[in-house]
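Q: My hope is that you can spare some time for a protein that puzzles me. Underneath my words sits a plain record pairing an amino acid chain with its backbone structure tokens. Those tokens are not coordinates but codes from a learned vocabulary of shapes. Thank you; the sequence and its tokens follow:
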Amino acid sequence: MRLRVSHSTTYRYTPRAAGIIQLLRLTPRNHEGQYVVNWQINVSSDARLALQHDAFGNIVHILTQGPTSDITIHVDGLVETSDTSGVLRDTDERFPPSLFLRRTDLTADDEAITAFAAALSAEFGADPLQLLHALMGRLRADMMFDPDPTHPGTTASEAFSLKRGVCQDYAHVFIACARKAGIPARFVSGHFFRSDGIVEQQAGHAWAEAFVPGLGWIGFDPANGICTTDAHVRVAVGLDYLGAAPVRGTRYGGGAETLDVAVTVDQASRQSQA
């Protein structure tokens, strides 16, 4: 599938900020099932972009900007994808899978998650792949997609208690449960081509990957109840959202800050026909 992705992030500051530093994890990499045909980042102001890779191999642009009242970061690119049934191959792996058993504040378990993971382990402990599919199915059935009660700092235990949240929350709960069951898991940020024809979205997408011996890393999208397909564009990975956030940084000075995000994911062939 040929997918065209457009992603705009706009910050406004009143009064203007004295300076901005942002980490941009907005650029995908090639691996089996994903080939980046072209990809471009444009900034509305005369900002400086420095390219590097972070510890997990993600492409990172460091944006620095002087005094400004607003800034827009726009990404546009074309990616060719193919369905690998969720199995990841030829990715840049810099750490052993065991690193992704590490607990973080956003993926920390509590008594409820511990009990839930223990029940899954008792039923499917001999087959980690079956356990992960059961985990994904139960989260899909038990949680409701709802953007109102959660925010970027919502923890897995909070979302699990609410039984609702956005794709980021589903991913954090999945990761917390998988790690509690002894299965390495990590957070993935990216984009998703919806099958319902809606191409304009309010944010990017997020899911999880878990490591299964003999197969390697496998993508699980609990918000949609599916393993990753050619509808997913994988951009960055981390222990949790903070390590894979599309835009993360700080500003100096300024007062109130507002944020607007607009994302479009569509098939390139359909755009050409239109």
Remarks:
- The two ends are 17 Å apart (CA to CA).
